[in-house]
Each structure stands twice: as structure tokens, then as C-alpha cells.
Amino acid sequence: MGTISLHQLSDLTEDECWLLFKELAFGHDTEGHTNLVALGKEIMKKCGGVPLAVKSLGSMMRYKSEENQWQSVVESDLWNLPQDENSILPALRLSYSNLPSKLQQCFAYCAIFPKDFVIEKELLIQLWMANVFISFTEKLDPEDIGNEICNELCWRSFFEDIEKGDDFYYGKRFKMHDLVHDLAQSIMEDECFSKEIESSTNISKRTCHFTSVNSQWNSYPFPKALYQVETLRTFLVRSTGWSSRVQFSCDFSKLSSFRVFGARMVWLTKLSSSISRLKHLRYLDLSLTKIQMLPESICTLYNLQTLELTRCYSLWELPKHMNRLKNLRHLYLGGCYNLSQMPPKIGEITCLKTITWFIVGKKRGCHLAELKDLNLGGYLCIRHLQRVENPLNAKANLIGKRNLRQLGLSWEDDDSDLQSPEDAEKVLEALEPHANLEIFDISGYKGVQFPFWMRDHILNNVVDLSLSDCHNCSHLPPLSLLASLRTLSLSRISRVMHIDDNFQGAGIMRGFPSLQKLTIEDLPSLQMMCIDDNFQGAGIMRGFPSLQNLTIKDLPSFQMMCIDDNFQGAGIMRRFPSLQNLTIEDLPSLQRKFTTLSEGLQHLSCLEKLTLTGCPELVALPDGIKYLNSLQHLQISSDQIEIQRSRAEPCGFDVFYYGRKETIGSPKLAVLPEALRYAKVLAWDDDHAVVVEQDKLHYKEKFEMHDLAQSIMKDECLITEAKSSDNVSRRIFHVTVVTDSEQS
Fold it and tell me: Can you give the residue ranges of the R13L1/DRL21-like LRR repeat region domain (predicted)?
């Protein structure tokens, strides 16, 4: 594959600059600001055709309506500052100088992050709160104020959102442009130290914030120079891994000015009780450490607002008196699988806004009732629901938690807790969430039936639903009623035989208008998927117009898929007009007429990747593959497969062939269809490979791989990550089709 020459983007033209500027500064009401148009064009010209400068100043001027305000921007002395090659720094400084003082402080603090760092809004707001950049008000929570600040900085182009394609994550993560980061760094100067750890001996005594992100912290001791910095407020380390097992330790008694202390993924098994000396501490991050328990003295950190313990896999107990942390607002426990139960009376921390994991306990003060009066939001997963002995104790008031967006309900396998299916049903019935819920996950449910509220329209706003390990359930709720659903996962549900088979009574399934990803995995009793409970009628089912990814795995009893009056034929394929990725794995009972996929493939015009593995009835690639003009990856693996010759014409797509060793060596795997005739196909495992030579698949041993890779690379039809001949066979990952015209 040849290299692509660098294309230097040109600046925006004056007309393009003006279109962008006036859209940001005036919106659609240019005529109402005729007195400002001439001044706006002068400001626009000073941006030098650089989009970032135009966006920054255009959004700034949106807040200015007086002519003298616009005139002062035109005549600002900041335009006379030294400029870089894009003439952008003065424009950014001008935009920064027009921010309210609170926004200036919040923006400048972002210099603690390295360039190109993905900033999580939730984290940033909590750090602002810890440094008292955001004050409490009677009407608004500080998190809401911080959210408004983030939104305004995004609008003014100081932040760039990186999740624009995903509605759920939109506005929750962002970056700063390198030049914007330079601006923040120039404002903070020595107050912020964000460099490699090796240089941490040269720390200014004016430093207020010390950060080391994306580094191997464990290779270096705690910088002694930090003990001499009396103004230090932030200490934030985010290691990339445990490069050594040197115990992390520091003398907290010499660091009493800390507001933020973060030691993410450092080798820490025990936290010193001297942490109680950090009386001003508001943010504590010990996530991904080896810590087993927290000292009881942590309960004297009365100003603590955020405690981050995510994925502390060794943590088995929390301090008994955590209810004394009256200012605690966010408690992150996700991934703490060894944590046996919550500390007692956690419900007395009335400020709590976030508890990512709540582990139900049996002792007094550890029950679900502790959640009743908490105004929780964001994400909540309630684990070990099988421990709820009396369903009357399941009143957690989830229906009153309107800010809760993501909910997980989990029953674990615990022989000591024998909850009856009837009690499990009553528990789930009592855990009805608010209608604002967007992501919902039920795992290990012991009941036979799903609650009434799952059959109603309570979950209308749910976009992501996962049901797993519900082994007593023989029917699913009416999933097609979830009009907003975009992701659906059904896995390890033992007794379900039909999906949407007469569960809705006389109702007809309406289809999934928004569904983009569907995964059905390990349903051993599932025989058919029927989208019309009467198996007849035309035009009733709207199908899956938005579905892009379909995965069907491990369905040993699966016999058929039917939609309306079409059984596994071309009519089904029409129901997936947007399908891009189709994966079918381990379907031993799949009928031959379906596995050949001979009908309807032409309707999958968007299909880019097709994966067929573990389907013993699959005997041939269909002629219809020639219609898949968008197909880029074909992945096949079957012990019995024999790929027959086809009359199809060659088509231009990349082929990715992967098989297990016994499949690769199978004598049946010998001939490719004409559609793939001119493709150089390479499949591999650790010791063997298969290549295409003159319409035949040939078996290669590992020692032949280096010369093989070199010869194919010379034809520019292979990419490899390998750096030495010893591991070439393990890293070859892409093959390009050579068409008829390219051969000549």
C-alpha cells in the first residue's frame, strides 16, 4: 500500500470566514444588526482565515449587542501581541479576556491536562468544585453550574466535543485544541506543573497544581520537592500501568494544603491513616490500585466531596463510619467485585448524588432502604439483589430519581441466598425506575415473569437494554414497544423459545424504528424469531430500518426467522436496509436453505462485514455475494465447510479470512468462488497460514511466513505490524483485492 502525500489545507476565504462568523455572532438575524455588520467584517479579517479564530471570536461577539463593545474589540491592544504563523493567539487571548472571571479561572485550570488529553466533563467539574472555583447556591447544585460553564466554554470554542456522533455521550467528553492549551498554559505559568515525572525535581514554589498523566509513575518515587511547596492544591497522577511493584507512599502530614489527591493505577495496597491530616481534601482518587481497605481515619475528612474507587479489585471493605462524610456527593465503586456490602447507614449522607455500585447487605443499615431518600443521578448498579429476604425491604424509590440515566439490577449466584422466583418478581416490581431512564441492564434475574411496568410504556426513553442470565424466564417483555431503543442485547436466557411470540396478546409488533445494534447470544431453547405474532399479513412489520450491527451466536435449537409471511427468504433481507455488520456464530441447527444465504443478499446494500463461523450446515458461499458492493471483510470458519465455485464476477472488496488450525488444514477448503478469484487471501494462526495462489488455497508452515509476507508486501497489497521475522505470522491483518484490470 503506497503512502499518501501530505495535503496542506488552505485558509478560509474571506467569504467563507464571513459566513461562519455571522452565523455564530448573529444567528439568522443579520438584518437586525446592520449597524454591527461593518465592525464584524473588520474583526473577521483580523482572524487571518483561521477557522478556530473565527469560531472563537464569532461566538464571543454573540454576547455583545452594543456598538461600542464591538468597536473596543476592533481597537483592542491584544491584536498587537506577537503572533504565531496562523495569527491565532491574539484572537484567543481576546476571547479569553472577555470571559467572566469565573470562566477564566475554570478554563485556565485545564492546563493541568496534557495536550490531546480526553477530558471527562464529570471529572473536570469535580476538580473545579474541589478547588472552590464553583460556589454553592440555593437554586442550583454546583454540578449544574459546572455543566453550564462547560457548555459555554464549548460554545466559545475553548473545548471541542469529541462524541458528536453519539447522542448519549454527546457533550460528556472533549479536548482542547493545541493552541487553546498553549493559551491556558501561558496563563497558569508556574502555577501548573504538568510534565514528565523525571523532571519533577525542578518544581517552582509557586506551583499550585501538580499533574502527571499517561506516565509510568511506579518507576519513580514520590517527588520530595513537593513537600517544600506550601501552595500545592492539586496532586493528580494517572499512571498507564504498573511498571514496578514499588509501594506508593507519601507523608500526608506535610501536604496539608491538598484539595485534590489522585493516585490512579499506582502500586498502592495500603493507605496511611495520616490521610486524616488533609482537612481541606475534597477529591480523592484511588481507582485501579491494589488497596484492600481504607483506614477508618478517612471518615474525618469532612470536606470530602468525591471518592473514586473504581476497579479497586482487591477492596473488600469500606470504613464503618462513612456516614459521617456529610459533604460526600460522589462515590464510585464500579468494578469492586470483592466488596461484600455497603457500610451501614449510607443513606444518612443526604448530599450523595452518585453511587455507581450499591451492594446489598444483610446487616441493619445495609438494605435497599438506604437509597430511598437519596437524590441519585447518573449511573447506579444495585448488586446482590438475591439477598433481599423480604420484598417489602426493596423500596428504594427508584421511580422518584428523575436524574438517574443508567440503571443496572443484578442477582448474583450465591448458594447461601435462596430467594424464591416469586420474591424475585416482587423485588423487581418494587424497583420501577423513573421514565427518564436511558440505559437499563438486568442480570441474573430469578423470576419467571417480568414486572408489569416493563410491559407498559415506562421505558419509552430507554436507548440501551440488556437482559442476561434470566434463566427462569420463558417470555420476554414486548421489546418493540421501546420506540427509542438503539441497542438491544439478549444473552444466556435459558427457557425462551420464541422472541415476540404471542406475548402482547392481540397486539402486532411494530418493529424497531431506532434499533442500531442487536445481539442475541446463548439462548439454548430459542427456536424462532417472529415479528408478527400471527405469522401472516403483509405490511404490518416495519422491520429494522436503522439496524447496523446484527450478531447471532450460540443458538443450538434455532430453526427459523420469519417476518410477516416471509420465512427466511428475500423478504427478511429487505427488513435490514442499513445493515453494515452481520455475525452468525455457532448455529448447528440452521437449515441449509437459510445458511446458503442465496436469496435476498442484494438487499443488503450497506453490508461491510460478514462473519460466518461454527455453522456446520454452511456448505457454500452464495452467488448473491456479487451484489454486496459495500462488502469489505469476509470472515469464515467451519470444520465442515467447502467453498464451491461460483459464476459471480470479481468484485472489489478487501477480504479478511480467519480460521482455526483444523479449518485451515481442511482439504475441503480448496476452491474460491469467481467473486474472490483475484483476491490474495491470507489467514493465519500462531503456526500456520493459508494463501491464495492461482485460484487455490495453499497451506503454509510458520517457517515459510517471512518470505511469503515479504513477497506480498512488494505487491503493495498487505499491511503488517510486525517488526521482526519472528512475529510476522502473528500480526498480518489486512489483505487487498487485486482486480482484473490491475492484473493486466
Answer: 368-492
